[in-house]
Every structure is written in C-alpha cells, then in structure tokens.
Amino acid sequence: MKKIIIIGSGGAGKSTLAEKLGKILELPVHHLDTFFWLPGWIERDKTEFISIVIKLIKEEEWIIDGNFQNTMSIRMNASDTVIFLDYNRFTCYWSVVVRFFRDKGKSRPSMTDGCDEKFDIEYYKWIWNYPKNIAMIYELIEKYKDNRIILIFKNRKETNLFLSNLIGHETGVS
Questions:
Q1: Is the pTM of this model over 0.85?
Q2: pLDDT one-digit tens code per residue, 121-147
Q3: Looking at the DSSP assignment, which residues form a beta bridge with residue 30?
Q4: What is the pLDDT of residues 10-55, one digit of tens each?
C-alpha cells in the first residue's frame, strides 16, 4: 500500500482516515479539498485542478482523500489501494453536524485556509443524495479492481478494526 485513494460521502471520515494511515504507513497525505477550494470557498478552475491531481499521482507514494468524480478514474487507475467508506447517510450527517459545531468559523486542517466551516444547505443535499453515486463508484471499482487492494467499509467499526489490524501488522504485534 503505497498509492492509496480514499473515497466516500462527505462526513464519512476520509480525511481523518487519511491522516491516521499516513502516520501508520509513513506516507504523504494529500487532501483534495485543499487543492480544489481557494480561500472564500471559490472553486479552482477544473482544468487546473485536474492538472494538480495528475501531478500528485506521479509521486512515488501517497494517500489522496476526496471524491471529485472528474478525477476519480485518474486516481483509481494510478492507485494500488482503493478504500471506499460506504457509510449510510445518517452516519455522515451526524459527523458533519458535529464538525460544524466543533469547527464553526475556522478552517479544518484538511481544508484550504480561508474556507471556514459553515452550514451549507447544498453540501447537506449532496450528502443526502450521495447514495445515487454509489453504483458509479462500484462500477469504477470493478473496472480497476485488478492488481489493487480494494477495501470497502460499511461503518466506522469496520474501518477501526482495519486500522487496529494494520497497526498490529506494522508493529509486528498480533
């Protein structure tokens, strides 16, 4: 596992998992939100964003978290590991609400400075409608499954078990 992508709904914990994996595996972590969003929640030009992603995947090792369907195939094709946090929308909603109150008025570490946490009805709608994207994600996983580790977690318990097992493996503890 040297080129890992983490995908899933907003609020699933992609960035948190990326940070934890980065520490365990000693890999650089790239949060796509920091490349897509300019300060003040301004979207970067799509062509420029795709160029940045292409540059990132040329690195020797990485963990990249984020959805961004326009680059998902590019990242999946370049990866050796795909982690899909296929959590239910209520889990994701709860996480986003907690994050809103925790980080209200400030930028979180996995976000561009100047993109302060806010209540955004369009974001909440996107999370609610995220299950409509799942078929497309599973199609991409099927397309790129060869020669890759594919990990699909349905809840935080499964994700945490994976991390616990990985820590035990990495440290030689069983």
A1: yes
A2: 999 999 999 999 899 999 999 999 999
A3: 64
A4: 999 999 999 999 999 999 999 999 999 999 999 999 999 999 999 9
Bridge partners, residue 81, by sequence? 4, 149
Spatial distance between the Cα atoms of 96 and 132, rounded to a whole number of angstroms: 19
CB atoms within 10 A of CB 108: 15
Both structure tokens of 94: 């709860």
Residues composing the chain: 174
CB atoms within 10 A of CB 124: 18
Q: Are strands 81-85 and 3-8 parallel, antiparallel or unpaired?
A: parallel
CATH 3.40.50.300 describes domain 3-157: yes
Spatial separation of the C-alpha atoms in residues 84 and 5, rounded to whole Å: 8
In the chain, the amino acid numbered 38 is L
